[in-house]
Amino acid sequence: MPDVLIAGGLSRWFEGGNGRVHAVRGASLRVGEAEVVAVLGRSGAGTTALLSMCGGLDAPDQGRVWVTGRDLAELAGVDREEFLRHTVGWVLQRPALLPLLTVEENVSVVLRIDGEPEREARAAARTALDAVGLRERADQRGDELSAAERRRAALARALVRAPALLLADQPTAHLDQRSSRAMLALLRDAADSGTAVLFATQDESAAAAADRVLVMESGALSER
Amino acid sequence: MSSVDPRLEGGPLVAVRGLACGHRLGRPDELITARDVDLELAAGDLVGLVGAGKTSLLRVLAGLDVPAAGQAVVGGLDLASATARERDQHRLRTVGLVAERPESGLWTTLTAAENVQAPMLVAGVGRAQRLERVAELLEAVRLTVRAQHRPEALAGGDRLRLAIAVALANRPPLLLVDDPAAELDRDTARTVLFDLESLLRRSGTTALIAGGGPDVEPYVDRLHRLGTAAPPAPLPLPEPVPDAPPVRPPTALPALPAGSPPVPEIRGRA
Predict the structure, then answer these.
(1) Cross-chain Cβ contact B109/A113 below 8 Å
(2) Are B95 and A100 an interchain contact pair (Cβ–Cβ within 8 Å)?
(3) Which of A32, A117, B125, B208 could be disulfide-bonded to B120 (CB atoms 3.0-4.6 Å)?
């Protein structure tokens, strides 16, 4: 199983009200193709900071991140944006959806930014929405979705590019049991098609759905 | 066709009469936040909105909620009776909306320039025109140097600037802005409002800016005060304080006396 994500010795400090906070302390991890890995940690444990660095949304103060063999530190400017966009998909806890656009438009626009023609982009968006069980919501406004549906829409938007790496921050937070299970099953589906999936969670039972669980405590990451 | 520019017809761009609106949670009567709203905006008007029910009114004008009663006409389109297709056109071309948490409408994985392009792609604007409009808007909101940055790399004030640029991308005749000062310090809010006003004046865009209290007043033509949402009540409601700085919702709401009417405004929808 080739490694899609390799992170080595990641550290991150933030300036806080009470001085410097060492949010991530020398974290290292690997996620392979078609693998689902959970990072289990309480709020404040540093999981969001860790994910941000793994997906290139934030740069580590120490350590390196390789995604599909590319060192993120060596990528800059437009190349970096292009690479990350095609390689890394995100499901954030509160995904952004333009309130006045339909759900389908919110998904297809991502492809159209890359120059995909409208018809193909729309068809791909429909397929992705279908895959996450939102077909019947495709014509509704981003604003009309529940929290669970917003995350599924974000997942559709991430998967529409078939990313090598999918990062999900608290994908099951505040979802009922059924929606939570459905979300985890969708992450598994993504992995089954070859994507490496890394998700952060505070919930033991969600973490149990992963192939491997890493535990994060006060910024330090360990295998369980 | 509903997209006829009302500026050419000489009528008001926005005409709201006897409108009641609220949050749609299945029992509309229980959640009415604004009643008897009468409001008229001519093309180019910049109006600040104070009082209870601001967000509800903006949502009706944006075509996201339907009125519980009364009439709301924007650009000649009666939003109470518009068809789904007319509503789609309305949301795409007639209005721009800047939500209270501007980042909720900004794509994390796209750059600032790409975020501004997104609504134009949906509206079918050609590439050359899109890029021209992006450059023009980013300059107008002073984000040219941030064009290749992603939203989370931007400070709060700059995110609001970017959300404004996104909302104006398709040149809507009406811009709706919900509580622009909510999450900003005063100085930042003022500089954004200053630039927003000049951008709106230059383009002749009509705008309704909800909340923001005294910070908004210098940048608008007038303030429109929404009345209290009190239905015939057995007990008098406390007077709202519309010009006070935005109040964060308390974690525990103070108990109302039995039989009180609903609290006039619901902030921070989940």
Answers:
(1) no
(2) yes
(3) B125
